[in-house]
Design goal:
By secondary structure, this protein is an alpha/beta fold. Helices cover about 35% and strands about 20% of the residues. The strands form two sheets. The protein has a five-stranded mixed beta sheet with strand order 5-6-4-7-8. Strands 1-2-3-9 form a four-stranded parallel beta sheet, with helices on both faces. Helix 1 crosses helix 7, helix 3 packs parallel to helix 4 and helix 5 runs parallel beside helix 6. The two termini are about 25 Å apart.
């Protein structure tokens, strides 16, 4: 993702003033990093929170796409709200197509709220290098269902979900960029919607576009704020 983001940032006329990885964490304190308008953070579940917080403390706006650490997002939101100059933009997926899929998912869930004979389940498929499961995108989709279907109250990875749970199945194979499938199944038929990414370019380009959009904004923001649909 880092290489893809670098490619699109340069293509769109931006200058990259600092690249921080596991071996040069001290660069968070460098003048080069502090000079950045926006930091784009794509790392790991175990490091994302500290990376974002360190960037914010240096006065740099942050766009983050790391997944698997959403339990700490409320803490980061509080840090942003306590600093009127701070900016943090988060999305579990920066693909424009996926965010359209998020909207379609919510719309379908509102319809299916009135049809209790259909049970809903999900499957997500990603490359073997993805550390977290279910994917952040799958969790966002599940929450979109839970917020709109009264009979669903939680998601689970269990093979035998309870009546009020949405099961999320995950698969890690090859170099699959990301596929998400949602099924509504009754005794007589099935309704399926899905999104399949062909490469990681859509995620990288979306992150760069988000960084451009957020450059003159403050607060805790996301794709809903930027896309407004």
């Amino acid at each position: 993702m880092g290489h893809a983001i670098e490619k699109f940032a340069l293509q769109r006329g931006h200058e990259i003033v600092s690249i921080i990885d596991v071996d040069n964490q001290c660069d968070f304190d460098s003048e080069q990093f502090k000079s950045a308008d926006v930091a784009i953070e794509f790392t790991t579940p175990s490091t994302a929170y500290d990376n974002c917080l360190r960037a914010i403390k240096q006065g740099v706006k942050v766009v983050s796409g790391s997944t698997g650490w959403t339990d700490r997002i409320p803490q980061l939101r509080q840090a942003v709200e306590n600093n009127e100059n701070a900016t943090f933009f988060y999305s579990s997926n920066y693909s424009i197509g996926v965010n359209i899929f998020f909207a379609v998912n919510k719309y379908l869930a509102r319809i299916m709220n009135g049809f209790g004979q259909y049970d809903v389940s999900m499957k997500e498929i990603h490359h073997i290098h993805k550390l977290d499961h279910p994917s952040g995108t799958a969790i966002t989709l599940a929450n979109g269902i839970i917020c709109n279907i009264d009979r669903k109250t939680a998601w689970t990875e269990s093979g035998t979900p309870a009546a009020g749970e949405v099961r999320i199945e995950h698969e890690r194979t090859g170099e699959v960029p990301g596929t998400h499938i949602i099924r509504y199944k009754s005794a007589v038929d099935q309704i399926t919607i899905s999104h399949e990414a062909f490469s990681r370019d859509g995620f990288a380009l979306g992150a760069v576009v988000a960084a451009e959009w957020v450059s003159d904004k403050t607060g805790f923001l996301g794709m809903d704020d930027m896309l407004k649909f």
